[in-house]
Amino acid sequence: MLIQELTLTAPMSGPMVPLEQVPDPVFAQKMVGDGISIDPITSELIAPCAGVVLQVHRARHAVTLKTPEGVEILMHVGIDTVALKGVGFTAHVAEGDNVVPGDLLLSFDADYVATKATSLLTQILITNGELLSGLEYGKGAAVAGTTPVLTLKLKAPVNVAHSDAASVVTGAKVFIPNHQGLHARPSATLASKAKFFSSAITLHKGSASANVKSVVSLMGLELDRGDCVYLSAAGEDAEQAIETLTALLNSGLGEECEPISAPEASQNNAPAQKVDDVVLPDDGKLFGVCASPGLAVGQVWQLQRAEISLQEQGEGKALEQEYFSQAQAKADADLQALTQSAASDEQREIFSAHRELLGDPELATKVLDLIAQGKSAAWAWHSAFEAQAEQLSKLKNVLLAARATDMRDVGHRLLSLLTGDAEQSGTIPDNVILIADDLTPSDTAKLDPKRVLGFCTATGGASSHVAIIARSLNIPAVAGMDKRALSLANGLPVMLRADDGMLHIEPAQSEVDRLVGEREAEDILDEAALMVATEPAKTQCGKHIEVVCNVGNVADVENAGQFGAEGVGLLRSEFLFMQRTQAPTEDEQFEAYSKVAAAFGKNQNIIIRTLDVGGDKPLAYLPIAKEENPFLGMRGIRVSLANQVMFRVQLRAILRASGLANIHIMFPMVTTLDDLLQAKALLEEERVALGVKPIPIGIMVEVPSVAMLAEQFAEHVDFFSVGTNDLTQYTLAIDRGHPELAKSADPLNPAVLAMIGRAVEGAHKHNTWVGVCGGIASDPLAVPVLLGLGVDELSGSLSSVPRIKAAVRDQNIAECEALAQKILRVGSAAQVRELLLAHKQH
């Protein structure tokens, strides 16, 4: 029985074209869905009806709406536009936004896209056509927001009985081979083939999953080339479906690409061996990014997360509500216990936040609504938390998107209680290096450091909650690990050198003994240095080098005295701005800066760096347009100058605090004199308005342009502070977070050292002093070359201060200068390290 008609108006202007004439067989054969195409004469895509934004493709060339009736409408601008990777497109909505007819969804540079893509033809498609009993197509020229392009005749809703009796069949792991990932064309091919099977079929990536028969659901996984996935199916033809579709995934779903081997992990009782058809590096070394430093030697243990079986239909509203209430109370009690027993403040904050997620009223309302519709508590809860996690994961703000992992962590905690599968993971044996596609904060907090000596994950990063917990437990960890690690067999001997982001497969015993010996010797030196940490750092020739610390929050300065820090060389003020929904007030900032100042003497320098965000550090309340290369875009001082109201608030707070200590101000990511002079002018305006005395002004030396023109910049500032992490990245053109290239981003590369030397030379001509606050300043091995280059101050992590001061005391400036000149003549970081080690041992 027909219950309703829904008319879609044109989302853009231009001639309407039948799908059969679109020069792409996937669209022409209606594999994605039925609909119509428009040859656009405008460069904006607007909403054709009311609905919620279900998905904005990461390449920003496609958006999907879901109407109140449940109809899913995919609008795909152009043919082969996914290859542009977002260049030329701007998204004006995000997943979860409610829109009304005429709201702007996307805009694009028509001239640019037309020259790069196969066609500008834009498809308007109904991806869940099973809801329709008929479809009428528009003809002629369409006017955006006015002309009807599709009239949908909707079926009456049908209640479908679901059976939970069918067993679930799981397929082998597949590495997505498609060069552009699983975009619309391969997704449509997979979905169309899946519809030949009666079984319910799901594609899994980590803890995320998608209905294989839904193109939108598949695209929502945002699968990249190399992503590890697997299929599961339940129904009479499940085995055949898994076999057929797994083969299709491996073959590239009709696109030209070579399969990527992704064998099943070995059984737990299998003998130690490498899987034959995975090609490992000849030197046995796989790389990722350091998440928690340290060295560990053990055997591989692959962590396999068991599937939880869910029954959709409930046992009655009252009973299911009671199940949910009891499980929620138990999960909250468990999280409260974890919060109270946390090993660090950071860990405590993580699980406190998990309790907030667990008690989210909107989430509970969705669960109770589904239970009222006859669903089981487990099915309702899984549906609700997965939807929220998916919505989070697609946010453009990286930090907020990372909270999807926390949502799924909370979700699986309660889900295991509802299903009785809480102890499903089994016991981890002793002396293992754990390897997993991903870990949740709860997984990590439960690890026993006596058994799990270290771990690697294929996902995540150095700033994730998992990394924070690993550091609090002193468990060496590497994130973003080469996915080939997932194929290593249990029992295989490995060495995890987390500081280097390296997993070494079957290392030679002599190599293990050497590194373990070095680590034990370093521990002894650490203890000796700490005993005299409060003594000044004077070279053997009597020169005092100021050794100060980098501070990431107020708590960091509580023990600064016992570590011997003589001040703060870098206060990262962004800790006040992150993890919140609005910028901190002037008073909030003043209070925080005052607390840091109070921890040090009146004569000790406190260098406060103004807000350094953008690139890899976005803010939820400070929208920065998505950039193809954010590290070359809106970062550091550029963000502050573009948001002067917020910048002036911070400048006033710093100036007010300057009366309490010897506070300096430092501007980050300065690249031009114009940026510096503009920032100084704003500071001077606020200083005069407040009537406070001038304070020392400095800049970060993080880009080659500043190092090369150091003499010109030094005329306008009181000090430089070299940020070697970024200076290395920009000098060597290597993303410091790149899982494969990061190992080559070595700040001891002679090119980087030459940049530091150039900056010091130019600065000293104007009596401008130079400090180093990047990672190299925490490395005792680097001290001689930095002193030889003329660096006046070293600012490292608080724990490194005693060893840095001890290293300074071992040096003679004349010898360091000779060593530095010798180092600047070699050609690689490896040769630099050889010279520094020889200097250390003589």
Task: Furnish the topology, listing elements before pairings.
Layout lengths: L3 E6 L4 E5 L6 H4 L5 E5 L5 E3 L4 E6 L5 E5 L5 E8 L9 E3 L6 E2 L4 E5 L1 H7 L2 E8 L5 E6 L3 E2 L5 E7 L13 E3 L3 E2 L8 H11 L5 E6 L2 E4 L3 H6 L7 E7 L3 H14 L33 E3 L1 E4 L2 E8 L14 H24 L4 H14 L2 H12 L4 H17 L4 H4 L1 H17 L12 E5 L4 H5 L6 E6 L7 H8 L4 E3 L13 E5 L4 E4 L3 H23 L14 E6 L16 E5 L13 H13 L6 E5 L27 H6 L1 H14 L4 E6 L5 H18 L6 E5 L2 H5 L1 H5 L4 E4 L1 H9 L17 H15 L4 E4 L10 H6 L4 E4 L4 H9 L3 H11 L5 H13 L1
Parallel strand pairs: 22-23, 23-24, 24-25, 28-29, 28-35, 29-30, 30-31, 31-32, 32-33, 33-34, 34-35
Antiparallel strand pairs: 1-14, 2-3, 2-13, 3-11, 4-10, 5-6, 5-9, 6-7, 7-11, 8-10, 12-14, 15-19, 16-19, 17-18, 17-19, 20-27, 21-25, 22-26, 26-27
Helix pairs in contact: 6-7, 6-11, 7-11, 8-9, 9-11, 14-24, 15-17, 17-18
